[in-house]
Amino acid sequence: MNMRIIRYILGIWCSLSVLCGYGQTGLYPNAFPLTDVKLLDGPFKHAQDLNVSTLLQYDVDRLLAPYRKEAGLTPKAESYKNWDGLDGHVGGHYLSALAIHYAATGNVTLKERMDYMLSELQECQEANGKLHPDWAVDYVGGVPNGNDLWPKIKKGDISVIWKWWVPWYNVHKMYAGLRDAWLYTGNEKAKNMFLRFCDWAISLTEKLSDEQMENMLGNEHGGINETFADAYQISGDKKYLIAAKRFSHKELLNPLSKQIDNLDNKHANTQVPKAVGFARIGELDKDATYFTAGKFFWETVTGNRTLAFGGNSRREFFPSVQACYDFITDVEGPESCNTHNMLKLTETLFRVHPQANYMDYYERALYNHILSTQHPQHGGYVYFTPVRPRSYRVYSAPNAAMWCCVGTGMENHGKYAQFIYAHHGDSLYVNLFTSSTLSWKQKGVVLQQTTKFPYEERSILTVMKGDATFPLLIRYPSWIKKGGFKIKVNGKSISHTLLPSSYAMINRKWKKGDVIEISLPMQTRVEYLPNVKQYVALMHGPIVLAAKTGTEDLAGLIADDSRWGHIAHGKKLPIDEAPILIAESESELIRALKPVKDKPLHFTLNGIKIINAASLELQPFFEVHDARYIMYWMTLSEKAYRGYLDSLAAAEKAMLELEKRTVDFVIPGEQQPEADHFMQSERSRRGHNQDKSFREAAEGGYFSYLLRTNKNTSLSLQVRYWGAEWGTKKFDIYIDDEKLISENNTGRWNQSSFFDIEYKIPERILQGKEQIRVKFQATQGGAVSPVYYIRLLKNQ
User: Fold this and answer.
1) Distance (Å, rounded) from C-alpha 392 to C-alpha 628?
2) pLDDT value at position 648?
3) Going by C-beta distance under 8 Å and a sequence separation of 6 or more, which residues neighbour residue 629?
4) In what order do the strands lie in the sheet with 789-794?
5) Any residues with CB less than 8 A from the CB of 570 and at least 6 apart, and which?
6) Which residues, 6 or more positions from 647, have their beta carbon under 8 angstroms from its beta carbon?
7) Alpha-carbon dihedral of residues 137, 143, 148, 153, nearest 10 degrees?
8) Per-residue pLDDT tens for 215-271?
9) Exposed, middle or buried: residue 657 (CB in 10 Å: 0-12, 13-18, 19+)?
10) What 8-state DSSP symbol labels residue 371?
11) Where is the Glycoside hydrolase GH146 substrate-binding domain (predicted)?
């Protein structure tokens, strides 16, 4: 048989594998390929179709530019500017998004773009091996100046990784992109490139000790352990499973496997992908240590650290119990990437144990967070979802903002059909109530689900084609009261004694024309903000209700290329002036919610006192855009309200006055603020105390940040210290290499309290400067006090 015929047969086979969703069924045997589940009209289909239009606005050559540059090839367009230190990361997300949306919609233009990217990336992979044969064979990454980084890693210099911005996290996005191009479309070129890329990492790190690996993994590295686990399942070669375990961070794995929650003050989306990998390794290797770690992570995050809309973290970090009030004061609320990855973790756990509680969380997060993070007209993506009353969200613009949440946002809106249905053995699971059609090829059955949920309280399943015997399991959601879940088959009621958060099983021979009617009565309930009991969210069924509160000062609503453009920087409106609900009990609050005629899922509050508002209309949070809003409501009894307001007003006034004076600030010890301010350091470490992060330096070490002055020449530097430190705390503070002051905090306060110290900066140092570098340098025999907060303030 000649090669032309062989290629022709392989081409037919590859085409059939795409149509059959080969990759998905091969990697996740109990999941339905996206090609077999189609969304019908509804909010999810609108989001999916809009996202296709949004994806097609991006310039592929600009996304590929970092890869060509690192491979020694001439870029065909200028690289995107935002988040320069992470050049390449969005390219990997974009490749995933093209594959996902092609599988979901069949849009040929998406496939053409994907094929073009793979061709270009393959050229880069080959060029890298020729350019740097000592370390870059099979490498296909866009990490800036990787030719300086990776050879040093290979030689065992792990410390160098801290001079780059999360390089393993960066390459992980392309690992996932190549995997997804095979997973969702069956592209064999992508699979081969993916496995070769995995071989590169194994070769690069094979001589590193376990201790060196652990130290290296202290730097954010995405879900790279998950992708190696996938490589193991794809190839059957155990070297990839070994790599997956070597790339699993034991600092997190070990306590989680013992069901110990050590997440306080940890960067949230650094940890979630690790847990996805733990669960995936446990799924494939039947290793209880890994699976328990992934499962416990899910349980503690969803049970103790998740807000009503399904998101978690503030300022990207998991707060402790004592620090949860930050959700109310901060504008950097839960990050979209976290929920994207929590859904991946949920899918893995469900594949092993198909339990309703996983889908209860999945539904909550899908409607209230993921769907809400896409602008319904222009398709922009959201990074932070503030919980602070009367704040607002910022949206990206195509070709302008290259945040991490733009990358996951590109993927999110093509995956809505991914877990509506699942099968486990012979059983079919109906997990979500979404208008869609399922083609279950194994059974020769086509099932259609028709519903306007959540705008109506029912869903209808109809067998459109085929006859087959199988158990049908329909989720009894946790938000329906006991005894409220009703099912009819061909008009006949199905009796059951199930409790909420379970599955109702109907085992029979199904035939064309069978109709299953599902009643979904939605109840209103109250959910408290974790560890802050005076703030509550109102939910109707799985839907978080919120109220628009105005459109004043929505500065940066559509973000530009500025480094901090993803953060809402309009005026912070005083918390004590936000609407406050006065109610003596939960039941009184729930009874006050009255439906608005002809506006499904819209409610007014009647019969209770509302402070600071004449009237309010609540609606699904996913409908709220281009406005300030409230989703968590201060709710107090009459007596509690009077005492609380006096103390809050005084503290809020002082904070707002400080905000007005602030020109720039950085929170030492927190990853993103330090990266945003171009931190430099030697012999420095970060830590936590009193639920706050800090950075310190010793043994002649230092740390420094670049702060904006906005051309102000009358400024002071405010530094926050803890007043009960041990040891010799002697250090110098420099502004652009000119000493500002020599400090000695040794035994200075001896009080367990924070102290904010202001240092006036001479005007001559600031003349003509738009930014300055502030440096904290340990003196001989001394150390820099832990620094908790740095502000550049306009002088009063």
Assistant:
1) 5
2) 75
3) 390, 391, 392, 546, 547, 548, 549, 621
4) 662-666, 789-794, 715-722, 754-760
5) 392, 552, 553, 554, 555, 556
6) none
7) -70
8) 999 999 999 999 999 999 999 999 999 999 999 999 999 999 999 999 998 999 999
9) exposed
10) G
11) 657-793
Can you read off the two tokens belonging to residue 92?
Answer: 């990997």
Beta bridge partners of residue 335, listed in sequence order:
384
How many other CB atoms are there within 10 angstroms of residue 320's CB atom?
A: 16
Q: What kind and span of H or E run contains 259?
A: none
Question: Which CATH code is given to the segment(s) 663-794?
Answer: 2.60.120.260
pLDDT attached to residue 82: 67
CA–CA dist 675, 678 (Å, integer): 5
763 φψ region: left (φ > 0), alpha (ψ -120 to 50), beta (else) = alpha
Residue range 545-602, pLDDT digits in tens: 999 999 999 999 999 988 889 999 999 998 889 999 999 999 999 999 999 999 999 9
Amino acid code (one letter) for 296: F
What mean pLDDT is predicted for residues 129-135? 97
Spell out the domain ranges in the chain: 1-206, 421-519, 524-644, 663-794
User: What amino acid is encoded at 132 in this protein?
Assistant: H
- Name the region of 83 (left: φ>0; alpha: ψ -120 to 50; beta: rest): left
Strands 427-430 and 468-476: parallel
**Pairwise CA distance, residues 588 & 469, whole Å:** 48
Full DSSP string of 134-163: TT-TT-----TTHHHHHHHHHTT-GGGGGG
pLDDT at 584: 93
- Residue partners of 137: CB distance under 8 A and separation at least 6: 128, 129, 200, 203
Residue 89 to residue 561: CA distance in whole angstroms = 16
Encoded amino acid at 187, one letter: N
Please check the confidence at residue 31 and state whether its pLDDT lies above 70.
yes
Write out 425-438 in H/E/C secondary structure: CCEEEECCCCCEEE
d(Cα 427, Cα 504) in Å, to the nearest integer? 12
pLDDT confidence bin for 726, thresholds 50/70/90: confident
Q: Is residue 29 reached through a cis peptide bond, with omega within 30 degrees of 0 on the bond before it?
A: no
Mean pLDDT, rounded, of the chain: 94
Segment (H or E) for 170: helix 167-185
Query: Whole-angstrom Cα distance, residue 172 to residue 139?
Result: 12
Q: How far apart are CA 195 and CA 237, in angstroms?
A: 10
Q: Extract the tokens encoding 169.
A: 């996290």
CA distance 679 to 266: 19
Q: How far apart are CA 520 and CA 164, in angstroms?
A: 51
Reported confidence tier of residue 193, pLDDT bands at 50, 70, 90 = very high
The token pair at 667 is 């929170």
For residue 334, whether the previous peptide bond is cis, meaning omega lies within 30 degrees of 0, is: no
Q: How many CB atoms neighbour CB 125 within 10 A?
A: 23
Instruction: Show the tokens assigned to 214.
Output: 């652990």
Distance CA 381, CA 372 (A): 9
Contact present, 496 and 474 (Cβ < 8 Å): no
The class (CATH top level) of 421-519 is: mainly beta
User: Could you tell me the CA-to-CA distances from 144 to 46, 170, 597 in Å, in that order?
Assistant: 37, 10, 57
The 10 Å Cβ neighbour count of residue 265 is 19
In sequence order, the β-bridge partners of residue 474 are: 430, 504
Euclidean distance between CA atoms 161 and 193, whole angstroms: 25
